[in-house]
Specification:
mainly alpha; Fumarate Reductase Cytochrome B subunit; 10 helices; about 5% strand; elongated
Length: about 240
């Protein structure tokens, strides 16, 4: 039996954690209200339609969540330039050999269900692993589709300047039908991502035991001390060479 020594390390900064949970709530509200808007249920009532106005309320909630989602996304883009290395946009993209090594390791763990003990600890990412990072890039592109098509559809009923910036999207796509179709397909893309994301987070939390789930609440993960010692040794070597 292999015994590992872990050290508690601060990974996710407070702004990243706030972004994450605001995003969770916004996406949950957007998906729920969006599905209601795409296929509204028939609600029988003796009251006048102007007194019920439930569908208008659903649309208002949807638009409010859309604004929150939009500005929250802009904030995350900003923080990817000013936050720590785990929040940086560089952590999401294949910019070095280490990224591909980690990608290979995570692929074996997540897809081939290979046990973590069979791989060297240096292959285990401290922040986002390579597959998670590139999947967040894909999610960001999917979010752009939602933003452009959503505000494009909203622009015809809004007088505010922000939605009007996207008024060209619907004509560019050939009309409301194509814009709504893309918006709807992207919604199911978010649902699929959420299901896979939840599975992998809990799976890695169980497999590696490093606080994967709790880290998004408190910001801390547990990192192998050997890895920390190895990094310090590498930094000392680099500094000695500079001197």
């Amino acid at each position: 039996m292999i015994t590992k020594n872990f050290q508690r390390v601060y990974i996710w900064e407070l702004p990243v954690r706030i972004f994450h949970w605001v995003n969770v709530l916004a996406i949950l509200v957007l998906i729920t209200t969006g599905l209601l808007i795409s296929n509204p249920p028939a609600i029988l009532s003796s009251a006048d339609a102007s007194e019920i106005y439930w569908f208008g309320t659903v649309r208002f909630i949807h638009f409010t969540a859309a604004y929150i989602f939009f500005f929250n996304m802009i904030f995350r883009i900003y923080w990817s330039f000013v936050g720590n290395k785990h929040a940086s946009w560089r952590a999401m993209l294949p910019l070095n050999k280490k990224w591909f090594q980690n990608f290979s390791y995570v692929f074996k763990v997540d897809i081939l269900l290979r046990n973590e003990q069979k791989s060297h600890f240096s292959n285990i990412s401290v922040g986002h692993n390579s597959i998670a990072g590139i999947s967040y890039v894909a999610l960001f592109l999917l979010a752009l589709v939602q933003v452009f098509t959503g505000f494009g559809l909203y622009s015809s009923t809004s007088q505010w300047w922000l939605p009007q910036l996207f008024a060209w999207v619907v004509p560019f796509l050939g009309g409301d039908f194509m814009a709504r179709t893309l918006h709807h397909i992207a919604t199911w893309g978010f649902i699929l991502f959420t299901l896979i994301h939840l599975y992998l987070v809990f799976y890695h939390d169980w497999l590696e035991g490093r606080g994967e789930v709790s880290s998004m609440f408190g910001g801390y993960k547990f990192v192998n001390k050997k890895r920390i010692s190895s990094k310090k040794a590498t930094n000392n070597i680099v500094e000695s060479k500079k001197n």
